[in-house]
Amino acid sequence: MKKTLLRLGVLALSFSVGFGAINAMAQSDPTGKRRITDSYAIKDAMVITAPGQEARTATILMNNGVITGIGSNVTISVGTKVIEGDSLYIYPGFIAGASDAGITKPEDPERPENFVSSNPPDEIAGITPWRSAVDQFNPSDRSVEDLRKIGFTIIQAQPDGGMLSGKSALMLLGHDQNSNLLKENTALAASFRGSRGMYPSTAAGVMAKFRDVYKNAELTESQMAQFSNNLGARRPEITDTYKGMQDVISGEVPVLFSASSELEILRVLKLQRELGFKLILTDLENYEEVIPQIKASGAGVLIKLEVPDDKASEKELDEDATEAAKEQLKRVKEAYQKYLAQASKLEAEGIPFAFSLADVKPNDAQEAIQKMMEAGLSENGAMAALTTQPAQMLGISRIAGTLAEGKMANMVIATGPIFEEDSQIKHVVVDGYVFDYDTKQKKSNGEAPAEGIAIAGVWDYETESPAGSGEGTITITRASDGYEGTITYDDPSGSGKASAPISNIELSGSTLSFSFSVDAQGMSIDIEVSGDITGNTMEGTMALGQFGSFPLSATLNPSFISRK
Amino acid sequence: MKNSRIILAIILGVISQAVLAQTPKGSVLIQNATVLTVTNGNLEDTDVLVEDGIIKRIGQDLNAPNGVEVIDATGKFLMPGIIDAHSHQGLDVVNEASAPITSEVQMKDVVNPTSIGLYRALAGGVTVSHAMHGSANVIGGQNATLKHRWGTMNPEDIIMKDAPRTIKFALGENPTRVHGRGNGIQPRTRMGVEAVIRNGFNEALQYKKEWEEFNSNSGSSTNPPKYNERLQTLADILDGKIIIHCHSYRADEIYMLINVARDFGIDKLVFQHTNEGFKVAPEIAEYTMGASVFADWWAYKFEVYYSTAYNAAILSRNGAVTSINSDSGELIRHLYHEAAKTQRYGGLTDEEALALITINPARQLGIDDKIGSIEEGKHGDLVIFNEHPLSVYAIPQMTFVDGIKYFDINEDEDDQRLSVSPTEMVEPIYLTEENHRCMQGTIRFYGESLFQHSH
């Protein structure tokens, strides 16, 4: 029933898109969004065609989403939109080995009347290998834009759900009116996530249930053979779960297994040894100690594009701290450094890896790569992990991962060498569509606030998020060493307003930024606000960590105190 | 090219060796100790030589082979490594509480060799623990017997491979509360508990028959039955391949399970907790592999009020194989004290008291041919104490597993953690959770505070 509804939804969506397109033609594109041409030339840019290649000056031509020429003496035909590329650096578009961007979790099906928690139906217990990420992917979701903005052009989208959530798919992060599907059923997403209040509820239960599902799928497979060869054989019971598992037990499709720690990785490898499926490990966070086992297994490797919070490791102790405390802090610092150095160890072992982006804050991704590089990961290694290695792992090297004639027009265009701190992404090209991004003078600490900008006072603000619009006030006052203030917001745990102190208030040029945290159902969410001030208005964003960032606009109330 | 292939082959060879590495085994000569063999009396001023993980010789004036470390234990006491027949240390998951029977669930899947509780156990002289599933279910998961080889990240390194399979059963208030009261399904009463067990075994018999019929007809058009590890495990119990370790308190339910076992021809059965075991001691002695009890812990819920500190002594003197266990990250640190309590309450001899934490739990786990006493040919699992281990002043000095020293009171670092979080200065410590883990994990199901009522 649920699935039917979903399909209906998808149908409705595609209908409206179709309708829109017809409309556009009939009324000569009232949206004004249709582009003038499918042909682009990026002229005289510094082009890095693949990891390890020298940057060389070249012009890139593309037409209908395909690279049609790269070189210094290519001919730009009439009707081609030219982007001046000098001083820009062009790289192959990034590819994420696994991501949940654009994915909305389907609603849980209703429990049947005769529901027994010790023996729930598969669909309720998180065993939904027949579901597809394609049905859950929305290209206009803000999280898609958030990833594209940092250079990602293709992701392996994984469906949301329980221990066997469903089939992943390769999606382009392209124009939101296109289907953007590159390849369906690329892996079966699995995790140790138990179901709340029913069987299997723990990692131990999930492992037992995984074996059960797998072995029964194999048995059904052999029954199918019996049934088609022998008259009188009993009809095999073809369940949705079996259908979802078929490609996995036949070895055509790997299991994309989420395992964050060394112990979880060993658990997955144990299942793999017992059952013999093809495997991609994803969401790896701590894995240094099991690199030999990972290598021996031959599994694909996706490490989480995130580094741990450095609050503890950056801590300074008082001079009168005990020896024990100093020793402990030393171990925390070592653990932090060890964590950062893991990627370089994979590289040294010759294990090709790519990145997973599920539950990752896109804004912190660049910093994560930089820290991994400071800890020993080579620049080529980092670039390969973003381009050629995921392309190889996902079987799309023919069309993606490098820049060459005939390949898909997916690229990242930056204002400088991509891993340099001051470089910013100016355009991202996906499937031949060019997405433009504002590049700003980087905020540098100590930049004098621009003339005539005043932030002290009471601001009224509004935000837009999928949960609806929100509003409140931001009060900023001058303090001895800068600013202090408070913000009010809609109370997440009920009606009315809640307020919180804001910190890190900084005015740099005409950019105001600050942060605060909100308690939502026992979870503390750090929120960062940043915006550009013109006169008495501010336009900016409110970033809620991994939940994405949302537009914010604010107006400073008139003050009766004259400005000096 | 050829060369690089060879190099590759060498590297790969090294790696696969590293992956399949054997558990480490060591050699050591401990000299001039008072050796408490447990099975062969006490030997004054005696040497014990462990070679390659096995006790090679026990005698006087032994010479250390080349390169073997010699430890002078003059004035000290050497006893077999302590064995805890009921523990939850070293497990990431304790309860898959979601069904009355979860015999397919395996604690071996969720062993965590970096859990600090294992090191603390070593510091209490415990070399082997029985890492059990919790007591939320009538038939819980299969347990893991762990050797405390501290220092590895790999669970396979600490799972005692040659120990027989064991499984957790639970009677009484826990399963009836979780499933009956909490979920409205059978069992709601002690009668229901019995019915769940009997039905499970009968279904297992049918399951076994289906597969036997299928296998004897192979080649014909018969279809294979559905695979069911849950029933297969119960069938393995009926075939004597798995030892039952049953959480129990009351004499009537203990006697009930003895009858069920006899009806189904099961003789591999050990009772855990067994607070009213003293009422049915002769029956336990005659029909089972004994009882594993607390020295003096009771009154934490209604079914545990009728208890006595004489329990272990009464069971022992009636011929039941009896052990004293911890079921706790705190008690596991001083099981020697717990054993000594049976001398105050019941007057057991030194040898009888030490047997409660060495050879007797080894028998109950089916590993008494390998560990549990100091005998030539057994594993080099040993503890050196400063005083007699039943003395109130006893403190373990060094603990060995397979001839390798994993604890040394003088040489170990203050901070022996194997894994350190990069984001937390000190991991939070939850005393209640550390101590009472039998019902751990059930809390999110049923919203009760279970830590006070945990065993």
Walk me through the structure.
The complex is a heterodimer of chains A (about 575) and B (about 450). By secondary structure, chain A is α+β, with helices and mostly antiparallel strands. Chain A folds into three domains: about 35-95 and about 400-440, Urease, subunit C, domain 1; about 95-110 and about 120-200 and about 255-315 and about 325-395, Metal-dependent hydrolases (TIM Barrel), CATH 3.20.20; about 455-555, Beta Barrel (Lipocalin). Chain A has eleven helices and 24 strands. In chain A, strands 1, 2, 3, 4, 5, 14, 15 and 16 form an eight-stranded mixed sheet that branches. Chain A has an eight-stranded mixed sheet with strand order 6-7-8-9-10-11-12-13. Chain A has an eight-stranded antiparallel β-barrel with strand order 17-18-19-20-21-22-23-24. The radius of gyration of chain A is 26 Å and the shape is globular. The relative contact order of chain A is 0.11. Chain B is an alpha/beta fold and about 450 residues long. Chain B has a domain at about 80-370 and about 435-445: TIM Barrel (Alpha-Beta Barrel). Chain B has helices at about 1-20, 115-125, 175-185, 190-215, 230-240, 250-265, 280-285, 310-315, 335-345, 350-355, 360-365, 430-435, 445; strands at about 30-35, 40-50, 55-60, 70, 75-80, 80-85, 125-130, 140, 145, 165-170, 240-250, 270-275, 290-295, 320-325, 380-385, 395-400, 405-410. In chain B, strands 1, 2, 3, 4, 5, 15, 16 and 17 form an eight-stranded mixed sheet that branches. In chain B, helix 6 links the parallel strand 11 (about 240-250) and strand 12. In chain B, helix 4 crosses helix 5. The model of chain B is unreliable at about 1-20 and about 445-455 (pLDDT under 50). The interface between A and B is large, with 61 and 52 residues.
